[in-house]
Every structure is written in structure tokens, then in C-alpha cells.
Specification:
161 residues, mainly alpha, 6 helices
Length: 161
């Protein structure tokens, strides 16, 4: 009776482990830390872009509104990345484009120079590019290495993992 209960418990654990999606398995293996870090940084940078033009006074009102909208889109993009999970990297690529836009907008509209807002946008844009690139690379790595080390067709062969 006790042995049957132990087998039943072991069977339930195997079923639960089999139901885990690829992202959870990768996170348990420690592969997806860069993805989590990138998403977190994207949210923080988006919040910073949303409030910084109004806290420190932007020289041009239109630019302040544009950067605020970019910050909100960045937060929404990071949230969409969490919702979509490992199914697609499209939200992270959109965050990468937003980073390019944030960095290039002051230069394109002639706002670059010795102003806090232009320097803030260029620096934060570069940091958004870096965070999005780390998240994209980590998600790609997670999708590659999240599978089982020994596929069914290679049963009995030596594994390098």
C-alpha cells in the first residue's frame, strides 16, 4: 500500500514536470536569467523615460511628449514579452527599435548638445539597446538549449551536455 502511494506520488511529479513549458524548464536550468534581467531593465528604463522629461524639465514640449510615449511603449513592450513568453521575440525586437529611436530622436530633431534631455535620451537609448539585445540573445539561447539533452532519435548515444 505504501509502495503504491509512493509510485503514485512519483507519477504525479513526472506528469507535473512534463507539463512545464520550455521557458520554465530553461529558467530552472538557469538559462533564462538574461531574459529576466533584460525585461526588468526595459521596464525600469521605460519608467525613467516616462517621468524624466517632466521631473527635470525638457527644453521642447513636443520632445517631452514623444519621449514619454516612447517610455510607455517600452513598458508595454516588456509586458508583452512576458505575456508571449518564449513563443516569439517580436516584442523584444520592438524594444530594440524603441532604443534606436530614443537614441536617434534628439540628433534627428536637432536637440543634441549640452542639454540634459538630449544626453539622457542618448544614454538611455544605448542602455535600452543593450538590455533588449541581452534579452533577445538570452531568449534565443533558451529556445535552443531548453530541450532535452538526448532526443529520442539519439537514444543511447554519448551526449555532450
Amino acid at each position: 500500500m505504501l509502495a503504491a502511494a509512493a509510485r503514485s506520488h512519483e507519477y504525479r511529479i513526472r506528469i507535473q514536470w512534463a507539463r512545464l513549458d520550455r521557458e520554465e524548464v530553461a529558467m530552472r536550468r538557469g538559462i533564462g536569467e538574461g531574459l529576466q534581467l533584460g525585461r526588468t531593465l526595459l521596464v525600469l528604463f521605460g519608467i525613467w523615460l516616462t517621468i524624466s522629461p517632466w521631473m527635470f524639465g525638457d527644453a521642447v514640449f513636443d520632445h517631452a511628449v514623444q519621449i514619454t510615449i516612447t517610455g510607455v511603449l517600452l513598458v508595454l513592450t516588456a509586458g508583452a514579452s512576458v505575456l508571449f513568453g518564449s513563443a516569439t521575440a517580436l516584442p523584444l525586437w520592438f524594444a530594440l527599435v524603441l532604443g534606436w529611436w530614443t537614441m536617434a530622436a534628439p540628433i534627428m530633431f536637432g536637440l543634441s548638445g549640452r542639454s540634459f534631455s538630449a544626453n539622457n535620451d542618448i544614454v538611455v537609448g544605448l542602455l535600452v539597446l543593450l538590455a533588449a539585445a541581452v534579452a533577445i540573445a538570452s531568449q534565443a539561447r533558451m529556445r535552443i538549449f531548453a530541450g532535452r539533452a538526448e532526443p529520442h532519435g539519439a537514444a543511447g548515444q554519448t551526449s555532450l551536455w
